[in-house]
Structures are given as C-alpha cells and as structure tokens.
Amino acid sequence: MRRQKRSTSRQMAATGLAAITAVCFSAYGGASASAAETLVHASSQTLEVLDGAPSGAGSNLLKEYYDYLAAQFKKQTGATLTWDYYASSSQETSDIETATVSGSGPDVMSYGTSFVGTLWATGDFSPLTPAQWALLGGKTSFVQSELLDSGIKPSEDIGVPYDANPYVLAYNTKYFQEAGIASPPKSWGQLVADAEKIQAKVKGVYGVGIDPDDAYDPWKVIYFYNADLGGAKPWEWINPAGTKVDLTTPQMQQAIQFYFGLVDKYHVAPPQSLTWDSSDVKSAFTSGKVAMVPLAEYNFEVLQKGTPLQGHLGFATLPSIPYGYTKMPPNGMAVATITSGEYWAVPKYASKLGNLPFEFEKISLSPQAQLLNFKLNGEMPVTSQGIKAVEAYDKNVAPFIAAEKQAVATSIAPVWSYVETGMESAISRISSYLVTHGDKWDQQYADAQLKQAQDAAQVHATGFGK
Q1: Backbone phi, then psi, for 65, in 5-degree steps?
Q2: Which CATH architecture group holds 168-336+413-458?
Q3: Which of 45, 122, 413, 448 could form a disulfide with 9 if both were Cys (CB 3.0 to 4.6 A apart)?
Q4: Closest Cα to residue 238, out of 249, 224, 250?
Q5: Which of 381, 452, 369, 384 is nearest to 418 (CA)?
Q6: Tens-place pLDDT, residues 191-248
Q7: Where are the domains positioned within the chain?
Q8: Burial class (CB in 10 A: 0-12, 13-18, 19+), 19
Q9: Residue 13: is its pLDDT beyond 70?
Q10: Nearest to 106 by CA among 120, 88, 92
Q11: Cα-atom radius of gyration of the chain, to the nearest Å?
Q12: 454 alpha carbon, distance to own chain's centre
C-alpha cells in the first residue's frame, strides 16, 4: 500500500460525445432506457476520487500529478474531478467502510494491495465486466503480477491497478567506496557489517535508516525477513482460509528483534530513527546522514536531485539471507518485493454514474499519465505501453520493472488490512517503548504488543464468507 502520498457525482453522466457515450454506457452493463433518456450532460457532473494525501518532501510533485489528472478529466469528459484524501492505512480503512456502509461517498477509491480482501468482503464492489476491462485496454495490457491484487480470483476482479512501487535497497555509492565496499550486501548479516564499516570510515554517518513510526512502512521489512527465515512463511500470519491470525511465531520474534536490533543491538541505525516516518528517513538519506535504506522506491531518484546524495545513488535487490546464516534456512523464501501499488475501485453506489468513473481510470492508465507519475513521483507503470514510455525516458528503470514483474502478493484474506494496521501499531508502540527506556530491548513487552495486534485483527478474521 502507498504511504501518505506521498499518496461526487450523484447522477448519471455522459462523456459529452454521443458516439462514445452510447458505446461506453452499453459497455458498463447497459440499460433498458435509451441513452437520450438516461444520460445527463457530463459538464454538470462532479466525480469524487479518494486517494492518499500529498505529504512530505514530494507533496508538491504529487499534487502536480493530481492536478494533471483532474485537468485531463475535465478536458476529455467535461466533468469536474475533486479529490478526497486519507493520511494513513487506518483512515483508509475507516473511510472506505464508512462510505460503503452509508452508500455514499467517493465515487472512485484508491486502495493499496493489502486492502483487496477488505473491499471484496464488503460486497459493495462489483467485479469488472469484460467490456469494462476492454475499455481500459484489456487485462493482457497490464503487468500480470499487478493483477494479483485486483480481486480474490480472476473472475471477481474489483480493482484496476494504476501504479506500482516495488521495493529495493538504496545505498550511497560514495560511502561504499570510502569504506572499501565493492558491492551492495546480499545478506542481512552483510548489511550490518557494511553499515559498521561505513560508520568506522565516514564520521557522523550511520549505516542504515529505518522508519518504525511510519504509517505504512515498518511491517514490510519484518515481512521480508520473516519470509527469509522460512519455517513460518509470512502469509501464515493468516491461515489460507482467512480465519486465524498468528503474529507470535518464533520467526516473527526473530524478525522484529532484528529490525529493532539495527538500533539497540548493532547500533547501525541512529537512535532518533525510532521516531522517524518515511519522510524523515528520506531526508536523512538524501542529506547524507545515513548510508542505506532497506525499503526504497524509485522516487528516491527524484528526491536526490539537488541534495548531497545526487550522483551517488545506487539501487540493489534486498538482502535475502537472515543474520547469522551463510545460506537460506530450510524453506526460506527470498522475497525481492511484494505487489505494492495502488488500484482504483468503484463502489456499487456509484453505478448511477455509468462510465464516468472508468473514463477517469482510463486517463490515469494512459502512457502520458503513467510517464508523468514516474517523472514526478517515481511510481512504476502498470501497463506494457506505460513501461515502454518509461523505459524510453530512463533506461535505469529496468531493475525496478524486473522486480515488479516478479513481485509476490500478500494475503488476499479480508482480515489482512487489519493485520497490517495492527502490526504498524505494535511496531510504533515498541518503538515508543525503546525511546522511553533507553533503547533497551524487552522481549516480553514486544511479545505483548504482537499478541495485542493479533487479538485485535482476529476479531475481523471471518474467512472468505459474506
């Protein structure tokens, strides 16, 4: 799911072009009445779209992208687009549930990959029809891994991907050279060792930056590390039926110990990073205060410009061998990235708008819009035409596109979003505890927070039934 972005019409609407409206209206399920009887001139319409709030260093760039979509929407449909925002995953959950329960609210909702099960479980989002997919370019035009979180199964896709943000390790090549390090780390143990070398050679610089107080990030590093350990695969945080949550496995304990150990055990992340969110860690990295960030997106390429990092930014796949191991443990799984991106979903109560929400989605999927989103925000395209446009603009994007195509999906169980938000809350509480207790690790306290998150999520673990 996207961090803080970083990221209503009430009657039936038309595109304003008779030929297009007739075809598109039919494509969205049709109607017994004629187009003349059912369509209202689009210029009188307003479409409300819910997405992540612009915030942090790139907020102006994201706003520029939003303004572009609104302008193109006005130009092509005659209708007006307004934005509504959420600022955290918990607010995202609340806003979506409030709207679907009340039957009114945003006409198009952005959701992250972690939320597809939650949206599907409401029963308030209709699967896209073949005709709707065709209007958007057809399913084969998309990066296929991005469709993994469009629905709980291919015949029930309720979401349309519109951007992706695969995760990699970002590192400062200048600091690596000064410390005599030839290449980025392949294991988490090597990451710690490299961080220690950098701190010894480059005074005033910490080896790693983390953001445990972020509204979206922290659980991901723990998820990856948990997968590397094997034993309890990360999707076993929820059983396959979606009815049982388990956040207290030995592998989970090891993963969370390692994450916070970067501060309190190995001392390669600054103590003040216990209160950092994503904007803080980006600022520390681009200003040269930390040498590595283990959860980086391509927008670092955008943010480095005009900073001490410019010209010294390197990207690599995430380490995959746990600390203390020389090879993957039995059943360990190297997860390069998850299917992390954003999707559009149209609630049933917006069906009165006909094709208008999908006309907006189509605009966001144009190669021009995807290229602009990449230029401004570092977000990856999700269609083959979008990829061509981005690759023609920047050849260095290839590693990110490759990671995106090989991404692994998280759980599609409806309870997953509660697991994620519960983990974020638990990590934040543990971080606050360390701040007030002198960075002294307390496993009993950590276990209690994980159990609290587990119990809170378990209440919502109703499986895949409605």
Answers
A1: -65, -45
A2: 3-Layer(aba) Sandwich (3.40)
A3: 45
A4: 249
A5: 452
A6: 999 999 999 999 999 999 999 999 888 899 999 999 899 865 655 789 888 899 999 9
A7: 18-164+340-405, 168-336+413-458
A8: exposed
A9: no
A10: 92
A11: 23
A12: 22
